[in-house]
Design goal:
The strands form 2 sheets. The protein has a 4-stranded antiparallel β-sheet. Strands 5-6-7 form a 3-stranded antiparallel β-sheet, with helices on one face. It has 5 helices and 7 strands, in the order H-H-H-E-E-E-E-E-E-E-H-H. It is of the alpha+beta class. Strand 1 and strand 2 form a beta hairpin.
Length: 186
Amino acid sequence: MEQRIGSSSQPLEGAGFDPAFIPGLTSPASGEPADADPADARSADAEEAVETEEAAPEGTADVDEPDGPEASEESGTSEESEEAGEVPDGPVFEASDRRAKIVADHRGVRLALDDQSCEFRWDEIGAVETESPRFGKRFTITVHTPDRRWYPIEIEATARSRFTEWESQLDAVLDAYFDEDASEMA
């Protein structure tokens, strides 16, 4: 009689072991191929730095941020200034507390909890569900994807009266950008 040495269970696959398994989550990209040697990368960076120093005239210095009152305005709204050219006039829903944040606008729905975040374009969303508790002040918003996954986030409201305000703002955004017919066909 044969007996196996070791476990007979199959290895688990999914979000518990591989964060890339969840669509919408993005990881920082290194920009280098996986087989690149780190020593070569350091020497190439050093050579580029020397070339840029030599190419810059002596009278000019590398300036990262502009001086004056405009500097504080531009550095504080870096995300808004990048998108200023493509922002249409339309409804925007934003809700946040000390840990969680949700933003729904023309680009889609973005969820953030502590240092984790994910972004869903409108064509990646199957449904958006809201839930107000009978007691308490935690407002739950769940984003459902067509592949039967869901991503809930809870926002703690300052008062229960904010629930109706948030519901109406989110409904306005969904009415403007979410196409139910497209999500049903996917």
